[in-house]
């Protein structure tokens, strides 16, 4: 009987400790991204001008070493840092599959041209 009381107390303390560890790891996991992934945080659209829509988005990325936030297939993605430093934007495949990519003359961004002729221009700031 003398050994049962401390054993139960020790067991209860161990269970509490394990529950605290589980809760702590769950709190840390929420809000964290898997390495190499991105998510859109904000997306603003301005259609006040006729025949023109200006869209601004903010993304949050957890990129691996030698990667940086970029765009792939019109979605935020982690891309090779060399693409950003060389300003060769089309190498990160920013346009959708049926669109053509062209660099802007001053390399400040790119255009995605759809088969019907519609052009989407993206500039990097």
UniProtKB/TrEMBL annotation:
Q: Where is the signal peptide?
A: 1-25
Q: Answer whether the UniProt record assigns the keyword Signal to this protein.
A: yes
Q: Name one GO cellular component term.
A: extracellular space
The protein's UniProt keywords, in alphabetical order, are: Signal
Q: Which GO terms describe its molecular function?
A: G protein-coupled receptor binding; receptor ligand activity
Biological process, per Gene Ontology: G protein-coupled receptor signaling pathway
| A family per Pfam | TAFA
Q: Which domain of life is it from?
A: Eukaryota
Q: Which family, according to the similarity comment?
A: Belongs to the TAFA family.
Protein name listed in UniProt:
TAFA chemokine like family member 5
């Amino acid at each position: 009987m003398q050994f049962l009381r401390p054993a139960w107390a020790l067991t209860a303390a161990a269970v509490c400790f394990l529950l605290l560890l589980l809760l702590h790891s769950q709190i840390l996991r929420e809000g964290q991204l898997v390495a190499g992934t991105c998510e859109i945080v904000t997306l603003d659209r301005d259609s006040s001008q006729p025949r023109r829509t200006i869209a601004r988005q903010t993304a949050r990325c957890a990129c691996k070493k030698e990667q940086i936030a970029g765009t792939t297939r019109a979605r935020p993605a982690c891309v090779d840092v060399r693409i950003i430093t060389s300003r060769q934007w089309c190498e990160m495949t920013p346009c959708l599959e049926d669109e053509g990519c062209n660099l802007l003359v001053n390399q400040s961004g790119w255009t995605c041209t759809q088969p019907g002729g519609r052009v989407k221009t993206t500039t990097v700031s």
